[in-house]
Design brief:
With 227 residues, the chain is an alpha/beta fold. The chain folds into 2 domains: 150 residues, P-loop containing nucleotide triphosphate hydrolases (Rossmann fold); 67 residues, no CATH class. 32% of the residues lie in helices and 27% in strands. It is built from 6 helices and 10 strands, in the order βββαβββαααβαβαββ. It has a 6-stranded mixed beta sheet, with helices on both faces. Helix 2 packs across helix 3 and helix 3 packs across helix 4. The radius of gyration is 17 Å and the shape is globular. It starts with 5 loop residues before the first strand and ends with a strand.
Amino acid sequence: MNTAALVVTNVTKRFGSHQAVESVSLAVAVGDAAVILGPSGCGKTTLLRLIAGLEVPDSGEIFLNGTKVTGLRHSMVPPHQRGIGFVFQDLALWPHLTVWKNLDFVLGSAKTPRAQRAARIHQALNLVRIDPLSARYPHELSGGEQQRVALARALVGQPRLLLLDEPLSSLDPELRITLRAELARLQRDLRVTMVYVTHDTQDAAALADDVVEMRAGRIVSVSKPMR
Ligand SMILES: Nc1ncnc2c1ncn2[C@@H]1O[C@H](COP(=O)(O)OP(=O)(O)O)[C@@H](O)[C@H]1O
Ligand SMILES: [Mg+2]
């Protein structure tokens, strides 16, 4: 059997007395797309942040490609070494950097050799079809274009796991449908493992190999999408 790209076992995270994530277990096979579907406040963002290493679980374990990434100080794999690309709900583009520099900064942090960076950046921008916009600053872009930059920035490091937190939620319905279809194409073409968080059942139908329903911090069902 192939090692799963992501395994989460019995992960719990509390904030004060509030259980944000409660005994969550989940496995995603290499190249698959899991969509975590649930209402606002059910713990979706917290779960993604735990997988990325931006939060530390109170208990439970997380494995990426068979390697345990959680644990006490020295055994914990930090976020930048997890091979993850993250599209945040609010995008979190760096406002003082051009599109090109937003991507270059990621490669610089990953210590990608300078000679390889330009080709990698062009490739990522081409994938999301915004190569001509590379000299612009985020505030000079439309919402949909900013969304594409966030996706390109998440892909440029060639992550083994792509985490997306409601990436289409701020877009108007038409653009949402277009970008959703493009994302489905990209995920299939790149065969990148994806965990996609949303409260939108149409996102789940279009993108998921597995639909993971969450309520109040817990996973309540895992099913195949209705298409
Ligand atoms: N840093 C934090 N401190 C305190 N409470 C938090 C924090 N982050 C999330 N929460 C709480 O945990 C619950 C789950 O939040 P979140 O994971 O953001 O849900 P979702 O992304 O599904 O909307 C919410 O009740 C939220 O208020
Ligand atoms: Mg959220």
